């Protein structure tokens, strides 16, 4: 999938999600790791929700960009994610951490898509299930 040029509507979605994630990343509060991250989720409605990582001097109390994006989605009254995009300023192809995979798995549709990015834009497209094939559920 990654090597195939995206269809026009998918390219537009990628561009919109990337812009939102980059804008979120610019707001990152990461004075401890100096590792800004931005994320954007697309809900089934088509609405996009973005987030950045927010750290704390008591390190484990910080949280990830994906978690902030999920929070915005939930507070807007939505709970189904069709697409996830993650970008990290200092790491090409950064993937969601283990905790965020579990958090995202609570809300992703069964065929949800994950976009990974490098400095130029989306560099890889894969099914969310590829990175979280057998997550815990109650
Ligand atoms: N981080 C995210 O925001 N998302 C991830 O999926 C991986 C890690 C953040 C957490 C912390 O603020 C920084 O990156 C360094 O670990």
Q: How many helices?
A: 4
Could you tell me the number of beta strands?
5
Radius of gyration equals 14 Å
Low-pLDDT runs of 5+ residues are none
Shape: globular
Largest sheet: 5 strands, mixed
Task: Kindly estimate the percentage of residues that lie in beta strands according to DSSP.
Answer: 25-35%
Helix content: 25-40%
- Helices and strands: which structural class? alpha+beta
- Could you give the order of the helices and strands? HEEHEHEEH
Small molecules (ligands, ions, cofactors) in the structure:
tetrahydrodeoxyuridine
The side-by-side strand order for the widest beta sheet comes to: 2-1-3-4-5
Mean pLDDT: 95
Distance between the termini: 31 Å
Question: What do you see in this structure?
Answer:
- This protein is of the alpha+beta class and 138 residues long.
- It is built from four helices and five strands.
- It has helices spanning 8-25, 65-75, 98-105, 128-131; strands at 37-43, 48-52, 81-88, 108-118, 121-127.
- The chain has a five-stranded mixed beta sheet, with helices on both faces.
- It is globular, with a radius of gyration of 14 Å.
- The N and C termini lie far apart (31 Å).
- The model has no long low-confidence stretch (mean pLDDT 95).
- Tetrahydrodeoxyuridine (THU) is lined by residues 30, 33, 35, 37, 53, 55, 62, 64-66, 96-97, 100.
List the helices and strands and how they pair.
Blueprint: H1 8-25, E1 37-43, E2 48-52, H2 65-75, E3 81-88, H3 98-105, E4 108-118, E5 121-127, H4 128-131
Parallel strand pairs: 3-4
Antiparallel strand pairs: 1-2, 1-3, 4-5
């Amino acid at each position: 999938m990654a090597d195939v040029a995206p269809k026009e509507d998918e390219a537009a979605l990628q561009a919109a999600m990337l812009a939102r994630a980059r804008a979120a990343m610019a707001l990152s509060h990461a004075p401890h790791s100096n590792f800004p991250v931005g994320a954007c989720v697309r809900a089934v409605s088509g609405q996009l929700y973005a987030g950045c990582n927010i750290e704390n001097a008591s390190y484990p109390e910080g949280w990830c960009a994906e978690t902030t994006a999920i929070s915005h989605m939930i507070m807007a009254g939505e709970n189904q994610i069709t697409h996830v995009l993650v970008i990290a300023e200092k790491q090409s192809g950064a993937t969601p951490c283990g905790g965020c995979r579990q958090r995202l798995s609570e809300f992703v549709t069964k065929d949800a898509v994950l976009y990974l990015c490098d400095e130029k834009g989306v560099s890889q497209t894969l099914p969310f299930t590829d990175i979280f094939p057998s997550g815990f559920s109650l």
